[in-house]
Amino acid sequence: MTATTRGAFIVIEGLDRSGKSTQAAILQSRLQGGEQSARAVLIKFPDRTTAIGKMIDAYLRSQSELDDHAIHLLFSANRWELASTIYAHLAAGVTVIADRYAFSGIAFSARKGLPYEWCRAPDIGLPAPDLTLFLNVGPEVARVRGGYGEERYEMEDVQRGVRAVFERIGEETKRTGQGEWVEIDASREKDLVAEDIWRAVEPLSIGVVSSLQRLWEKDPTT
User: Is 94 helix (H, G, I), strand (E, B) or coil?
Assistant: First the structure.
């Protein structure tokens, strides 16, 4: 993609019940309704409407069992299914907000004990976000929020391990300069969280001039 004005690619990450979906919806509405309104679309990963997504959904709801390597590759394939859609939106000047992305894939699988570099490999070359917002909330806070425990990974020990991997990803992202990684305290009221998110996003709300990078074209571990 050439270095012309394009839409911004914004990813919202975090532990389960950190408020990602709520904040993604608030952000989309704000982008579309502000003084400098922007076209914005919201994509949720996994996309459970595709054939691959339906397999992932059954697994997350504990309705099926899959090898850890297999489910990781399915999550990655689900992202690749939408890569061309992301590129098309950005080229058309549309801001793309992703509720979860490749970073979640690494965090959850590496926490299981799969090699970090192996977990990262299937997503090399995906469109890289301009900004990743990590909604940081302790598992003990997430546990008391509605719906916690309904899916496979919503257990405190799992979430603590996932949080540690997210910290590593954030440090690598900051070190390599491949997009911006901003941590948001998501333990507060949603309006306060939304304001912090907007402060980070607002500079991108009128579009991006730089060309879009691809994830991990340069190994962040080196």
Answer: coil
The CATH number of the domain holding residue 102 is: 3.40.50.300
Strands 40-44, 9-14: pairing kind: unpaired
Phi, psi of 148 (to 5 degrees): -65, 135
| Domain region containing 87 | 9-204
Work out whether the CA dihedral 145, 147, 150, 151 comes out positive or negative.
Answer: negative
Q: Please count the structural domains in the chain.
A: 1
This prediction has a pTM of: 0.90
Q: Which residues of 158-180 are buried (b: 16+ CB within 10 A; e: fewer)?
A: bbebbbebbeebbebbeeeebbb
Task: Please tell me the least confidently modeled range out of 76-85, 111-120, 125-134, 204-213.
Answer: 204-213
Interatomic CA distance for residues 174 and 143, integer angstroms: 29
- Integer Cα distance of 89 and 133 in angstroms: 20
- Pairing of β 131-136 and β 40-44: unpaired
Among 198, 206, 216, CA closest to 30: 198
